[in-house]
Amino acid sequence: MTKSIFIASAEPYSGKSIVALGLVNMLLARAQHIRYFKPVITSAEAPADSHIQAVLSHFQLPQDYQDAWAFTRQEAMHYIKEHRQGELLDQLISRFKALEATSDFTIVEGCDFTGSGTAVEFELNRLIARNLNAPVVLLVSGNNKTAMETVQDALNFWQAYQEQDIPVLAVVVNRLAPPHADEVREQLAAQIPADVLTAVIPSDKLLENPSVGEIFSRLRGRLLFGETLLENPVDNFVTGAMQVPNFLNYLKENVLIVTPGDRGDIIISSLQANMSSSYPRVAGIVLTAGSVPEEPVMRLIEGLQVTVPIMAVTTGTFETTNLVAGVHSRIRPDDTKKIRLAIETFGRFVDQDALNEKIVLHHSAAITPHMFQYQLTQWARRQKKTIVLPEGNDDRILQAAARLLTQDLVGLILLGDPAEIAASVKRLGLNLDLQKVSVIDPAQAPQFEDYVLTLYELRKNKNVTLEMARDLMTDVSYFGTMMVYKGEADGMVSGAVHTTQHTIRPALQFIKTKPGISTVSSIFFMCLADRVSVFGDCAVNPDPTSEELAEIAISSADNSKRFGIEPRVAMLSYSSGTSGAGEDVDKVRRATEQVRIRRPDIKVEGPIQYDAAVDPVVGRQKIPGSEVAGQASVLIFPDLNTGNNTYKAVQRETGALAIGPMLQGLNKPVNDLSRGCTVDDIFNTVIITAIQSQDEPT
Q1: What dotted CATH number matches 212-325?
Q2: Which residue among 11, 22, 490, 677 is least crowded, i.e. fewest CB within 10 A of its CB?
Q3: Is the pLDDT of residue 362 over 50?
Q4: Contact at 8 Å (CB) between 534 and 636?
């Protein structure tokens, strides 16, 4: 059984972090206990190794930084020069085995090829891989190479490991110029055996070029403006030392401007260019020679809507420009944008299903939060759906849309003013191609009058006039819901800036509930440390009757199963079994009986207390012999007060991720967001909405 993979590169700056992050993300979808190990790091001095930190912190792997490496490069070279190679390997293997003993799988990352002695590091990688008995993923850089040169390097690298009888799982070419991708892919597939996976990852400026924050860290200057914008990518840089008209001709997309601090004309024109739709986006400004703009200029900048980070450094313009040119991008632990992009890039260009087949893992019945989220993205891809987002002008909606499109998970329709949305995309620096999104202004839409007439026909018996229907249809919630009703969108997600009532009222009016269901309710997927539980109803029904509670339980159980969670339903109360009395307990007891009568296939227990529902020891004590007690996966709360407070308490006190609320019971999926929602909340809600709209249960 394979319990480790070794990532080996042939040269520096080949992009190992993309493969490392992608592999950990992929494997966490199948195993609970993943560890990360880098035998040789560049230095033990601060700052710590960014690759290790990024992996450990992003995935919250339960291991200490010190356990993730064995030797510094200097220490390893010292052992080799003194011919103590055997001692080096013994200690390295010992450290690795100690880590491996606590894991289901371990990702091992080879040397970085920094400084002199790269040939030694090449041999050291082979030696370590062979002695750890770890199959290898080989990584080759295509940067500044022709297709022929790239293919030859990949073949030579693969052959070098074949000669040592080291099993190779995959050969990955990274940072290749996109025009060469198809040719290199075909050549590798033709010349490397079919049992070795081959993949080509085209170059991506967003991953390969440094951010403003990385450059500022290298320059060690003083940040004057734009602390929240340090993730801006830097694709180009230019020295601002000429007159403004000439200077403006040199601006390119995501440009970093290096200029003396006394050049107020360059600074102001740069800020204006960034705000103009006629000029490309400015990534940041570096003010050189230890000077800052004079007070009137500083006051002018402070009064502008500054969307560019500005920094002052003591070095001269020429020296600063040379320092900027020498910055190589590394994925830092705090750069969540690049980490996500690296994971998404790996998923798009590496056949993960094929790679998974080559890795034999022990499968656990438990569903961890990461497994659940990974499954959601895989299910969404199987049957791609189109989701309408009525609040297209909201920054969080646009940021989530960029992530969804990058991963190719759904089709999207954004409602709002196209010019405003385009301006926001530029201001936020998003990698969001609006050519791949339908952007619709409801009042100007060609289907507007048809929607008005449809709403009038549907609601005229409720005293809705044609003028009232026309007025309602200018509301993005009504327009978006009508798109779902008409089949022009498969689902809708709203509520980032609107109330729950505003979001779901149109759905209740004309999408209506499924046959046999009269109660619209909600569930949250509560991603706890070692499992995913379903909580319902925590968002819609204040005080459901026993009949409504039974419907909530049935809908929740069905959706639990649809999303890969075996339903064991606990009908919660302040009493367990027959020990309690009172109307509140009796309501839960009646609801439980109705579930058993209507759906004898559902495992249900109630009334039951929360601790008896989730703790096996308490469950056996309070309701011995129950199929649900102590192992409930679906928890139904008796009222909104209990449910809403409980889910928030669990979320805040345990750090659990709460995905939802997901509305259930409607004929077509419409889901509500909290006005305090994050980009992650929107991303996850769109995915579950897409899955809800798929034809067949997952």
Answers
A1: 3.40.1390.20
A2: 11
A3: no
A4: no
